[in-house]
Amino acid sequence: MQALTGMASMQLTTRMAEDAADHAAFITGWQQDYAQLSCGRYQGRLDELCLPRLQLFREFSSCETWQHCQPWPDAIWFGIPRPGSSGQLRYCGRSVPENTVLLSPGGSDFTLRTPPGFLIYGMVLPLALLDLHAQLITGLHAPAAWRQSGTLTLPVTAYTRLCYALDSILASPADSAAPSRLALASITALVQALVQGQGGGHVGRSVIQQRHLDWVNTASALAASPADTLPTVEMLCEQLHVTRRTLQNGFQEVVATSPLQWLRALRLNHVRQALRHHPLDDTPINDLAAAWGFASPSHFSYDYRRLFGETPSQTRQHAAGLASS
Prior knowledge:
By secondary structure, the chain is an alpha+beta fold. The chain is 42% helix and 21% strand. It has helices at 20-24, 127-138, 156-171, 179-195, 207-223, 233-240, 244-255, 259-277, 285-291, 297-308, 312-324, and strands spanning 13-17, 31-36, 44-51, 54-61, 65-70, 76-81, 90-91, 94-95, 100-105, 110-114, 118-125, 150-153, 200-202. The strands form 2 sheets. It has an 8-stranded antiparallel sheet with strand order 1-3-4-11-6-9-12-13. It has a 5-stranded antiparallel sheet with strand order 2-5-10-7-8. A hairpin with a 2-residue loop joins β7 (90-91) and β8 (94-95). It is globular, with a radius of gyration of 21 Å.
């Protein structure tokens, strides 16, 4: 709620991104990190509407991503993936069925491993406001399942109706007489859909599932620091005291890829950010790549261009042009 103080307006803000890390900074009041995982030029879009004590947005990412997210505190986030877009979506390391709403308390971290062409609607509001509207609509307090990390599967009709309602509100916010009317319409659509929820699940993980997520987090930490050698699967197996096959299975469950592909993709993302954030640095690109563990310039250049759709020098030149403009 504090994150939106004084920010309520009728204006719909649209932001476009050509880089996953830039995209991560768009949502007002959130703390986020994104990494691009699939090949091609990245295209991201955020349509955001900040209303009295309510944040509503629609977010699109063209490429597969790994997202580490934290909504603003003292609130609850509801994530509503576009129907048909679940695919390889993982929420906190677990696959997401179709027509499922994701929930996470504000101030708490969650992760998403998104498929290509992914679109999700998001709504963040204080718990007290959610409870008030639940009482107005149902006569009851909001259930505990609406207040904590978890998922809630809806009937197809209810889920589709909710997505249509949010799309309509975001399409033409100026048609409404007041921000409060938009807020009421948004929360009413959400609560009416949640009431029809069919079972649900807490994100609480089994010991094995938590262990698999910990492996991914360990690998991510290794990839986040410069080193003159890339972490290997063998190094991870030795550090985590697991077999290669066990590690492979754990990564497939959490991020739908292999440990080696994961490590290389994250390291390439870190090199990209170094090029973009320090475009006037005259360090040779091959030296920068070597500092992140890419010993072969030709292999690095090939992998980089394949993942991001441009050469490392093009990334630096584009960033330098923006810095000097």
